[in-house]
Amino acid sequence: MAVIFKRRKLKLRLTPYEIISTGENCGLVEFLPDSLSIDYIKKKLHQITGKEQDLAYFYKLRFANPAEPHWEKKFKAAINNLADSLAAYSLVSYILQIKDRHNANILVNINDGRLVHIDFGFILSSRLLNFETAPFKITSDIIGLLGGIEGAGFKRFRDQMVEGFQALHQDNEKIVILVQMIGESQKDLPCFKVGVAETIHELKKRLTPLGPRVRLSRVQCQYEVDKIIRDAYKSWSTSIYDKYQYCFQ
Which residue ranges does the record assign to the PI3K/PI4K catalytic domain (predicted)? Predict the structure, then answer.
């Protein structure tokens, strides 16, 4: 998907990283420099300030220091990077049904403010984690940092999601073929627990909601994006899951 975004010169930002298998149950994972999990950031801020802080506190602390020259420009760039990366990972999470999206699996690049997702152990089937029902991870914390639903940052996030969804919709066959190839050779993977055919069918429904023969217009793509954003924001499961992970780490 990163290739699709890049080829179409979209602003959506993903941060792929290398994984090398060295055995059946082991391998090497590329180190992601200058990146801290949201979970770590919040715990550290609580330790320093003596109370819970939202993500906006960290972004202002890191990117909006009035003592630095051009700090307004730096902060705006960080929010734009947040919006662009949030849009990209939201789409990937929805299309590929990536679950286990708690705050320890979402990092922030401390140099530019973009989000980076890690740990993709639950993918392609919402049935692997039945209680995590949100299409993707978005919280009031993030929305507040983007300026609220009427803010410029949230508008940028929504616009980028529409651009990205339209691109993935138009190139849906490439995504489907890749997953089919994996399914045919690795059908015993947990993500194909419900069957390869059923997994592919559900994937196609997300990529082509009106059917494989219907090419969506931009307005129709916008409607689909607004629907999944609304479902994600309304979901109670994301905040509950974060609290669960926080308590048991």
Answer: 1-237
Contact 5, 167 (CB under 8 A): yes
What SS3 class is residue 83? helix
Q: Which two tokens stand for residue 99?
A: 């679950």
pLDDT digits (tens, 9 = 90+) for 87-116: 999 999 999 999 888 899 999 999 999 999
- For the chain, what is the radius of gyration of the CA atoms? 19
Distance CA 59, CA 216 (A): 37
Residue where the block lists tokens 């138009």: 170
> What's phi and psi for 26, nearest 5 deg?
-150, 165
Q: Are 92 and 5 in contact (CB under 8 A)?
A: no
The pTM of the full predicted model, rounded to 2 decimals, is 0.90
In the chain, which ranges are continuous DSSP H helix? 2-7, 38-49, 55-63, 71-95, 140-145, 152-170, 172-185, 196-207, 218-234, 237-248
CATH architecture entry for 30-248: Orthogonal Bundle (1.10)
